[in-house]
Specification:
seven-stranded mixed sheet, D-Maltodextrin-Binding Protein, domain 2, 2 domains, about 325 residues, five-stranded mixed sheet, alpha/beta
Length: about 325
């Protein structure tokens, strides 16, 4: 039997290998295809991260005569009964005693959401990529207005007349961290007067409105700085307060704190975390917190809303 003929390498069953140049073109095509596949795999959406615990941090301030147990209990109830029970997210609350402690926690990725006094936010945001998402709303405005008040008939019509006097200030934080005091400092500087530490005989800070306003009402102190909302409430409770006290100056709306996402937060979790802060008024435990803090709610952050406070901090 005659042997089977060998297939023609040019036209038979086994194709002829491409010429040298064709091999290079084929190799380039295969490499390009491989790159496309790799790029496609890289761009495919990955499964979003699943949050199991919200690490919430805040800066503590201790002021004389302030009992924060009610606020602490309200926060605990919100965390346990709403966030954990209804939203299925564990909560770890951590209080930090200073801006430096908070800075270290943020740098180490130990917190997800932080509640920062405005001065702390403005200073820390220079160092790290904080992502603000919420600010307080009072009387339909971003922030709180402060009023410099003196007794009618005292002859006091401007801050320059308070040289050597004692000044009472309603504030959530003391000293240079206090926005209302920074506002008073601006009034002094604009009138060419010394700083508060030299102009006044002393500056005392209180959170409770009655401990700031009533000494002025009863003639025990010449003037005080109080929030406009607190002043209105005191006048409603006792109209004589409005009859015997007068406003010397009113501040622009000043935001007391900012709620932020930490730089280390997974971007896919950011909307859920922000929703919890912005939705405080949507559940009874969140509303209790707002009531204790005398706030209407938490509104989405707007850069222009914090500008009055920024100007005071950067003056």
């Amino acid at each position: 039997m005659a042997p089977a003929p060998c297939p023609d390498l040019g036209t038979g069953m086994i194709p002829a290998p491409p010429a040298h140049g064709a091999w290079r073109a084929t190799a380039r095509g295969m490499a390009a295809a491989l790159l496309v596949l790799l790029a496609s795999a890289w761009l495919l959406p990955t499964a979003p991260a699943v949050a199991t615990e919200l690490r919430l941090g805040y800066v503590e301030y201790s002021l004389p005569g302030v009992d924060r147990k009610d606020v602490a209990l309200a926060v605990e109830l919100w965390a346990r009964r709403y966030v954990e029970t209804e939203r299925g997210l564990g909560v770890r609350l951590t209080g930090y005693h200073s801006r430096n402690e908070m800075r270290k926690a943020l740098a180490k990725g130990q917190v997800d959401v932080v509640h920062l006094p405005t001065v702390d936010y403005l200073l820390l945001s220079r160092e790290m990529d904080l992502k603000p998402f919420g600010v307080p709303v009072t009387d339909g405005e971003y922030g709180e207005r402060y009023v410099l008040v003196a007794a009618k008939g005292s002859g006091i019509t401007q801050v320059s007349q308070l040289r050597g006097a004692r000044l009472l200030v309603q504030a959530m934080s003391a000293g240079p961290e206090s926005l209302p005091l920074r506002w008073v400092e601006r009034q002094l500087r604009d009138q060419g007067l010394p700083v508060a530490a030299r102009h006044f005989s002393g500056v005392e800070f209180e959170v409770q409105a009655s401990r700031v306003l009533l000494p002025v009402f009863f003639g025990q102190a010449p003037a005080c700085v109080i929030t406009e909302r607190s002043l209105r409430t005191m006048v409603e409770l006792n109209p004589q307060v409005g009859a015997q006290l007068e406003r010397i100056a009113v501040s622009p709306p000043l935001i007391d704190f900012v709620m932020c996402l930490a730089p280390s937060v997974d971007p896919s979790l950011a909307p859920r975390y922000a929703e919890l802060g912005l939705g405080l008024s949507d559940n009874p435990w969140g509303r209790q917190m707002l009531l204790l803090l005398q706030l209407d709610g938490i509104a989405p952050f707007r850069a222009e809303a914090i500008e009055p406070a920024r100007r005071l901090v950067e003056q």
